[in-house]
Amino acid sequence: MSTLGAPRSSWRDGATITSPAELVSHGEAETEAAGERLGTSLQAGDVLLLNGELGAGKTAFVRGLARGAGCVGDVLSPTFQLLRLYGGRVPLAHVDLYRLSRPSDVADLGLEEILEVGAAAIEWGDRLAWPGVASLEFEVLGHSVRRLTLTGAPEHWSW
What is the pTM assigned to this prediction? Predict the structure, then answer.
């Protein structure tokens, strides 16, 4: 079972997020479920930067986030494409900056236009200077145990 650091309620309650919020996930299914809960509150213009080592669960979280935003289809890592776009209640741009050679290359992805009607989840977001947006840090605690720490979340987000 996952535990939520703040506020003091079950993560299953759809509690409003206070910053920072912490969640401990004990497997990929729990990580996806946390993403799905957050995805239900996504709105156009929302940006989430995801940071953590390879295999920490960033793409699993985005799979749930997309499902919660009403996106259909398989959510795959965009490592080799840099960007995958999923249509849904809130269209979601899934971006991976791992292979990005220059931060200025982000401008070529068209995120500004996407954010007019959709949201963005950006893996390896620490490679991008974007003040004032939410950040989710993934810390590997064990084989399938991860600590997720969310900071800077908009008031309308809940999980």
Answer: 0.85
